Amino acid sequence: MSAATVSSAPLEAHGEGRIGLRANLRHISALVRRNALQIKQDPESMFDALLMPIVFSLLFVYVFGGAVAQGDRGAYVNYFIPGMMAMGGLNIAMSVGTGVNDDFNKGVMDRFRTMPIARSSVLIAKLIVETGRMLVSTVVLLIMGFAMGFDLQTGPLELLAAVALALLFGSSLTWIFMLLGLSVKTPQAVQGLGFLVIMPLQFGSSIFAPTATMPGWLQSFTKYNPLSQLADGARALTSGHGAVAHPVTMVVIWALAITVVTAPLAVAKFRNKT
Prior knowledge:
Elements (H helix, E strand, L loop, with lengths): L2 H5 L13 H21 L5 H22 L4 H34 L1 H7 L4 H29 L8 H28 L3 H17 L12 H9 L1 H14 L5 H28 L2
């Protein structure tokens, strides 16, 4: 997207604080189109969203599923697929951090900061596009799940609610990794720090296996792990069994809290990064 494209909107002033809502929305829309065109020109950037749910589904269901579910892979599919919804957003969010960091190193973000647009619009546009990638990944996951025998025991509305819950939480995580990408020097550092966060959260949760056989101290961690809450909430919504209100409420609270804390920090870091 050229500078002329973004600058074509009427400018209320040169400062971000005086850019009107309509102009801000136009800027976000233009930046969303730019990010979407980048994906179209580089379809390989979608490989993680398309292939990761396939690889993980095949790996865990057919390699570990029999052992975890004591030979009943069908039961494990119903357990694993809703849990995997929680994991997909986390992995894509980490890739956002590396992308933001790489854009800064290439000077792309410096060009945006010279334009008379709200600084938040650049990050919001990226958030919107990445949420779309999360949705594509979740659809691929569900297709794989149904192909392997996933049994939706409720209805389409409950399934949509589970997907929406996963997207909400995944979007909040995107702010964390955008802040991380703006705070460290290299994409490799983003990946390294990201894995230090991701691994304990993923495997110290109820995504892949029930927590009943875990040591007591680890069960205490999984109890408050938001990924466990998201996985349990998605399972309750798709199976019709178990509490729904508590895990869903906790996920929403986590998502809002993460966004309220990290979004302003990410925007401020983007504005002041040298």
